[in-house]
Design a protein that fits this description.
Blueprint lengths: L3 H28 L12 E5 L2 E4 L5 E9 L4 E3 L12 E3 L6 E7 L4 E5 L2 E9 L2 E10 L2 E11 L1 E2 L8 E11 L1
Length: 171
């Protein structure tokens, strides 16, 4: 038969084990490679604009601004090699806004320190894409997408697609 003191000790030990387990899970989620983690920012961040008001039914060019994390680069829209993943902006159907085309900035020539014979065409730092869009009348929460592959000087990460959320008001 267990005494109140024994039960209290078991409860205390169980509480410590639960707290330790939660802490360990929290630490492992910081070191793991989660799909969508608030603790580890994406290699590319969408900066602005968050909201646009454009004439409904009229082709309008808007500038979308992005930032690449320090120490990383991404392939430009026109990489030198076909096996390299280009940076591409898209807007899926069903958002009331259609992407008619995009003008991407020219990439910068980049030579890998480990392979001086290989030249890449990349974006670093901040860059902008001129998106030509047409919106139907109304307020549309658009979830555009930017697909890219980020690399550092020695390795590349798997390709990734981030959501580019924009509130487009067609007037």
């Amino acid at each position: 038969m267990k005494t109140a003191k024994t039960i209290g000790i078991h409860l205390a030990v169980a509480t410590v084990l639960v707290l330790t387990s939660d802490l360990a899970r929290g630490q492992s989620s910081l070191t793991a490679e989660p799909q969508h983690s608030a603790s580890k920012p994406a290699a590319v961040q969408y900066l602005y604009p968050e909201q646009l008001t454009i004439p409904a039914g009229k082709l309008t060019t808007v500038t979308l601004h992005f930032r690449i994390m320090p120490g990383l680069h991404i392939n430009s829209h026109t990489p030198h090699e076909v096996e390299l993943i280009p940076t591409i902006l898209s807007i899926p159907e069903g958002f009331g806004v259609r992407l008619d085309g995009a003008i991407y900035p020219p990439g910068a020539e980049f030579v890998l320190p480990l392979d001086p014979k290989t030249q890449l065409n990349v974006y670093t730092g901040e860059f902008s894409i001129q998106a030509r869009i047409v919106a139907t009348p109304g307020d549309h929460l658009v979830e555009a997408r930017l697909r890219y592959q980020a690399c550092d000087n020695s390795a590349c990460m798997p390709p990734k697609t981030i959501t580019v959320a924009i509130d487009v008001i067609g007037k």
